[in-house]
Amino acid sequence: MTTKKQRRNLHKPPEVGKPKRVYGSRQRMVRVNVPDDVWARFRARALEQNVSAADYVGWLLERLDLEARKRR
């Protein structure tokens, strides 16, 4: 199911060389640009821990976010 916003943006060409990765719950979807080699590393790490790569990246970013907040 696509949202209105997604349908509106369909005609826009995607940024070259930047695959959009989606992670997080459906309510709070976040798109991040991740280089393919980094994504492959994430996928390998996620496989070890038996979670989906998107969930793993979501968890990583949440952790980074928490650390950034602590520093502030």
Strand segment tally: 2
Q: How many domains comprise the coordinates?
A: 1
Shape: extended
- The helix content, as a percent range, equals 40-55%
**What amount of the residues lies in strands?**
5-15%
The side-by-side strand order for the widest beta sheet comes to 1-2
Order of helices and strands: HEEHH
Low-confidence spans: pLDDT under 50, at least 5 residues?
Answer: none
The radius of gyration over CA amounts to 14 Å
Q: In whole angstroms, how far apart are the ends? A: 39 Å
- DSSP helix count? 3
Largest sheet: 2 strands, antiparallel
Features:
two-stranded antiparallel ribbon; 2 strands; 3 helices; mainly alpha; single chain; 72 residues
Short précis:
It contains three helices and two strands. It is mainly alpha-helical.
Fold blueprint:
Blueprint: H1 4-8, E1 20-23, E2 30-33, H2 36-48, H3 53-71
Antiparallel strand pairs: 1-2
Helix pairs in contact: 2-3
Explained architecture:
The protein has 72 residues and is mainly alpha-helical. The protein has one domain (15-71). It is 51% helix and 11% strand. It has helices at residues 4-8, 36-48, 53-71, and strands at 20-23, 30-33. Strands 1-2 form a two-stranded antiparallel sheet. Strand 1 (20-23) and strand 2 (30-33) form a beta hairpin. The chain is extended.
